[in-house]
Amino acid sequence: MYGQPQVGKIRLLRKLHILNSPETVMTTVIDGKSYAAGIRKQVGKAVSRLIADHHLKPRLAVVLVGEDPASQVYVRNKGRQTVEAGMDSIEHRLPARASEDELLELVEDLNNDSSINGILVQLPLPEQINESRVINAISVDKDVDGFHIENVGKLSIGEESLVPCTPAGCIWLLKEQVGDLTGKNAVIVGRSNIVGKPVSMLLLREHCTVTITHSRTRDLPAICRQADIVVAAVGVPEMVKGDWIKKGATIVDVGINRVEDEDGKNRLVGDVDFASAMEVAGAVTPVPGGVGPMTIACLLRNTVIAACRQNGIETPPEVNWGGNTAGSG
Ligand code: GUN
Description:
alpha/beta; Rossmann fold; 7-stranded mixed beta sheet; 11 helices
């Protein structure tokens, strides 16, 4: 189950209610930061138990190629939060000009190193490197991103697998906010391999009626207006407007776009026009502080799950919720 009791107990405290106008709904700003902190705490408890009972301290290796500033921040945060959860973190850096062979050699070394439980190669990679060749070189059991073709296939047929982190985080937030998702109309804006496609599979597993939309979709606003749930993962700043949203719908904004405002200052915005969405939606994730923090929390959870599976240990109850179990029917 998603939302184990420890997290559920204080979930009301984590929702910030804002009254818009007399005739509009109360819109909840979904506090992803707080939910993510709850998940990390549970991961920390699971890790303590693994260390005490099995002398197993999970270890995550993160590989960064080049100096992309945003990737550097993500990798630093992953390392810090891994250690804070009581696990070991190892970072490998390769120069931007590194060849595909060099990276494949490093991945092979990490695959063969039995002290490493999870491997993550930060994307995007420089253009001389074929991303899919690298992703598929990672051992399936250590693929904590859930991007390996075998994990993708297992997710799509409902077999147990490592599930991509951002989509898992979206589902957690939706289940906390909406409860049972059965029969809901979910519209996904964007068809990427990292978010759009896997989140669609997870919503299908939750018995939603799922529509995947993309750049060639006709009359996107009309399709979004039918949705009880909108997941925006398209990478276009503030594209989804309030008048695309059905009153009371739940909106999950995966976008993180840096834009310059009128006085030349940089700020982060999502793929949803937050101000107009707040006038009509039932609940919205903010940017930053919505889906973003959930991604690393779910990565830490995947690392624990991977370490347990590699060692034939049952997944600790603190991290054994939804997402990674098969669904059918
Ligand atoms: N770049 C942006 N998001 C991700 C992610 O979830 N995993 C990896 N490996 N790279 C990313």
